[in-house]
Amino acid sequence: MTQIRQDLFTGNMVIMASGRVRRPSDFRNIEKKKDVLEIREDCVFCPGNEEEVPAEVERIEREGLWRVRSVPNKYPILDNNCKDECMYDLHSCIKGGGFHEVVIDTYRHNGNFFNMDIQEFFDYLSILESRYNSLKNKENVEYITIFKNYLREAGASLEHPHSQILTIPLIPPNIAKEIDKAKIFFDENGICLHKYVMDYERRMDKRIIHESGSFMVMAPYASLYSNEVVIIYKYDKRFENISIDEIEELSMILNKLFTRMYNFLGDFPFNMYFHTDPINIEKSNFYRWHIHITPKKGTMGGFETSTGICVNSIRPEEVASALRWL
Ligand SMILES: [Zn+2]
Ligand SMILES: [Zn+2]
């Protein structure tokens, strides 16, 4: 049976066509990780080669050695060379550039989200929070995006585990769309859409993977990608104000979640990205920051490209039941 579902937060449409694969485990066609050295002499992100990348902006050390650090991206998506708004007869370009940093997730070349321990996730999240708060004070920042590409199929160009943090001089369309939808819902119903969905999912008890004091982990009802997961922060507070206790809580969640995903899917390519509140607008009480984890398999086919409707062959209910923990 197929079913067309629509996402409340984006309006995106997806066809659930679970008959197109036999079982959820059919996704597991990716080899498990091969042995990789902890430190590689020829890797620019490994300890010992710090001089080969632009000068570091921040690090976290333990026992006199850096564990995680952030450096300017040598090949930035946005730089600060475009200072003027350009108007042509027909087209235009928007003023303002951005600051783009690479966060080296761990000093271990063979580290990855599937084998990082809670302490490593804690250091990783701590530097993200710190860089976010620092970049917020730069010029022309309307939004800060944090994302990670894991493996080449998901857009990673270097093997050493890393993430990216980038300022943008505007509110990106995907964020604007989510906030607009949440605002309309709030105006019509007087309740935060994220809160409403979390309450609903608790009652349904089909798509929640885990819930802790400050976070809910779930397989979204209209997941665009097979095995997609979202982690929602439950309260009305900005990402940059996350407490140390909450960083610890989130570290435990990421450690457990990725271990369970590895057992279910093997070593799979994925994107992980944060959706946070725009910098210069007052914190709204109708939007909660959250993290998307979207496994990548295959590319958009003709159907998806031409219609804008995705096809997902694994139901989120099956994903939640495979990954759930108490
Ligand atoms: Zn390395
Ligand atoms: Zn989102």
Supply the key terms.
single chain; 326 residues; alpha+beta; HIT family, subunit A; ten-stranded antiparallel sheet; three-stranded mixed sheet; 6 helices; globular
In brief:
With 326 residues, the protein is of the alpha+beta class. It has 6 helices and 15 strands. It has helices at 118-135, 173-189, 193-204, 244-265, 302-307, 316-323; strands at 2-6, 13-17, 58-62, 65-72, 86-87, 92-93, 100-104, 143-150, 162-168, 208-211, 215-218, 229-233, 270-275, 290-295, 310-312.
Structure description:
Helices cover 25% and strands 23% of the residues. α1 (118-135) packs across α4. It has one domain (2-323): HIT-like (HIT family, subunit A), CATH 3.30.428.10. The chain has helices at 118-135, 173-189, 193-204, 244-265, 302-307, 316-323, and strands spanning 2-6, 13-17, 58-62, 65-72, 86-87, 92-93, 100-104, 143-150, 162-168, 208-211, 215-218, 229-233, 270-275, 290-295, 310-312. The chain is globular. The two termini are 31 Å apart. With 326 residues, it is of the alpha+beta class. The mean pLDDT is 91. The strands form 3 sheets. Strands 3-4-7-9-8-13-14-12-11-10 form a 10-stranded antiparallel beta sheet, with helices on both faces. One zinc ion binds at residues 178, 275, 290, 292. Residues 178, 275, 290, 292 line the site of one zinc ion.
